[in-house]
Automatic annotation (TrEMBL):
Family matches, as Pfam families: Ribosomal_L13e
Single Gene Ontology MF annotation: RNA binding
The keyword Iron belongs to this UniProt entry's keyword annotation: no
Protein name (database record): 60S ribosomal protein L13
Coiled coil feature spans: none
Entry superkingdom: Eukaryota
Alphabetically ordered keywords of this record: Ribonucleoprotein, Ribosomal protein
GN (gene name): rpl13
A single cellular component GO annotation: cytosolic large ribosomal subunit
Biological processes, Gene Ontology terms: translation
Family stated for the protein in its record: Belongs to the eukaryotic ribosomal protein eL13 family.
Amino acid sequence: MGTKTSTRTGSVVFECTLIRYELEAILRRREEEVDTARQNLPGRKHRRREARLAKAAAVAPRPVDKLRPVVRCPTVKYNRRVRAGRGFTIQELKRERVVFQGGLEAYPPFYLDFQEAGIARKLAPTIGIAVDHRRVNACSESLSANVARLKEYRARLILFPRKSGQFKKLDSSAEDIKAALESKNLAKSVGSLLPIANVSRAQAVTEISKADMPEGEKAAYRKLRDARSDARYVGVREKRAKAKAEEAAAAKK
C-alpha cells in the first residue's frame, strides 16, 4: 500500500492517498484553465485575426499559405470527396520529359505532352509549393490533375528578386513585377486563387433510361445455369461416355 507519512496532527496518510490528492489537484487546475479559455472566446477570436493580419503583412507580397495538391479522402465511405493534401509527390514535380512517337530515329520528334510539371524538388518549397516525399501517385488521374494544378500555379506565379534590382534566372522581369505592384491584384491566399471544389451529387449522378442501356443476351440466366451444370458434372459425364464406349466395343466382339 506504499509508505506511511505522518502529518502535523500525528495521523497517518498513505502514499497512495497523497498521489490521489495530487491528481485531483492537477485535474482541477486543468478544468479551471479550460473554463478560462472558454470564457475569453471573443478575445481569442480577436487575437487570431490580429495574428493573421500581422503574418500577411510580414510575408507580403507573398501568399500566407502554400500550394497543396488535390487528394482523395481515405476509405470507401469518403473517397468520392477531394480535399487538400499535405504536399506534392516527387513524380508530380519532376522535370519536363518529352514523349514522342516513332522511336529514336524519328527527327524532329512528335511532341505529345509533358508528363510532369518540370519543377525541381529543392526549388518547390522556396516558391510556395508544399512537397511530401512519402506520398505516391496511385493512379494517372491524380498525377495529371496535380500536374495541371502545378502548371496553372507556375503560369500565375511572379517571382520577386531577393535583393532589389538583382534579377536572377528564375525571377520575373522588371516589367511584370512593376505591373503586378501597380495592379494590386496580388493574391493573399493560394487556396482562394486555386480552390479545390467537390462535385455535387446532382452533377455526379446521371439518369439513364432503359432505352439507353445496351441490350443484353436473351436467356442469360439459363445460360449461366447450364454453364454451372457443365462445370459440375464434367467428370460424371466423361465416366458415363467412357462406359458406353466400352459397352459398344464389347458388343461388337
